[in-house]
Amino acid sequence: MISIENVTKRFGKRQVLQDVSFDVKDGEIVGFVGLNGAGKTTTIRIAAGTIQPNSGDVLINGHSVTKEKRVASKYLGWVPELPIFEQDVKALDYFVYIAGYYGIPGGEAREMGKRLFEEVGLSGREKDKLRNYSQGMKKRFALAVSLISNPNNFLFDEVLNGLDPQGIQFFREVALKMKKEKKAILFSSHILSEVEAIADKVVFIHKGRVVKIATMDEIRNSISTRNLRVVLGKVTKEAISEAEKFGTVEVNGNTLVIRDCKADLQAVSMALSNFQVLEIGWVTGGLEDYFFKLTSG
Ligand SMILES: Nc1ncnc2c1ncn2[C@@H]1O[C@H](COP(=O)(O)OP(=O)(O)OP(=O)(O)O)[C@@H](O)[C@H]1O
Q1: Is 153 a domain residue?
Q2: Is 26 helix (H, G, I), strand (E, B) or coil?
Q3: CATH no. for residue 247?
Q4: pTM of the prediction?
Q5: For residue 157, is it within any domain?
Q6: Nearest CA owner, ligand 1 atom 17
Q7: Does 297 fall in a domain?
Q8: Residue 280: which of 290, 295, 292, 269 has the closest Cα?
Q9: In a domain, 291, yes or no
Q10: By C-alpha distance, which of 125, 169, 177, 107 is closest to 147?
Q11: pLDDT in tens, 159-202
């Protein structure tokens, strides 16, 4: 479990984080969302122990990153937005070198490296120098490194940035697999559809403050559009022209979506009653609608 507790951070005179608090529970994927400069990376770097907060703390499985960094780090994996590695070293050699910091002897580290390279889709590229890795490959390498201590908490900072669709799918599946294994995952991303696809809960940060924490169910239920979805038992020409009296109609099998519906649900339900209304309800919006509503407010 990752607990961010009242974290405050200033860079010089600029207040970058103000009293940021939230939890990522075991078996939970938490989306971390905010505009550019909102404070996501700073929060993540504080959680990873690479920068110190001015006040507050982050607990990893109950261990303070500010006071017990070594122990806390053992339970934490981190894939940074722009992984920076030694460029002139062969990837597997560098992995073995890093594993040394975790007290893993050379031979064992090499075997572990081969296994993890395969797991993250880098087999065959063990002898390439890191300078010859693409951005996506560097992220996969950072993931392999983060798996060395088999931690149960993960920080993914904009891991999808600059990835091709295959890379995006790979990291989505990694996060979902980790969730199944009851790991705690904090996942920052600008690709809101991806956050929506995997997150259980979303933390919204704006100008250094947490402005909202909501589950995906709460988000979906709170945004209702003027688009009405109706499932009919009988979809006939008459049914469609009846529906068209209320707005533009899209037909997909037995489902009609009346866009910008001018009437209320009961009126449409009555008007279509001869065509067997099996289901009727307003289409709910997604994370993107919610995010814009929140930040424009
Ligand atoms: N080392 C630093 N020194 C001074 N200011 C910094 C430093 N790192 C970050 N900042 C400032 O802190 C604020 C938050 O930056 P941060 O990178 O955490 O935002 P972010 O939400 O991750 O943004 P993005 O979505 O663009 O990655 C910004 O105003 C940024 O300029």
Answers
A1: yes
A2: coil
A3: 3.30.70
A4: 0.84
A5: yes
A6: 41
A7: no
A8: 269
A9: no
A10: 177
A11: 998 898 899 999 999 999 999 999 999 999 988 889 998 999 99
